[in-house]
Fold this protein.
Amino acid sequence: MTEEKLSEVVGPEAIIKFETGTIKASTLDTIIKMLPFEMGFCDADDKFRWFSNNPDRVHKRRVEAFGKSVLELHPGVAHHVKKVLDDFREGKADEFEFWFPKRNGQPGQIYQKFMAVRDETGKYLGSMDVTINLDILKDKEGKHAPETIKEFQELKPLDK
């Protein structure tokens, strides 16, 4: 498997039909990069197959890892990873989540959730992970939403 984008494999103008609508491949590539979290996918044989290419990733990924066993990619915790994946495969669990402080002494927390991916018949297709840098929630307590159309129109764009 190479580093090709979906829009390069099926063509950027290809229309992908989902149950909930249609979207161009190039647009879907762009949307995935914009999400405020990162994702990855391992197939039913526990081979690393895909990751979202978000800027400022928490977990750096390498395309050289495609096709490798996820256990090989995480040797220090392979026994824990194997247990989670076996539980997913056997239907004993559908998700596993945890959170931990950022590494290297940086302030902040990271949230990670692993989920079994199954088709409509329940067949195990693999596992997906979502990682969120919880700093995106920093200073976001209470409410920040307009009550009226006028308030909505007066909103200023967020500064970067």
Notes: The CA atoms of residues 109 and 134 lie 6 Å apart. The chain is about 20% helix and 30% strand. The longest strand covers residues 109-118. The helical segments are 6-9, 25-34, 70-73, 78-89, 149-154.
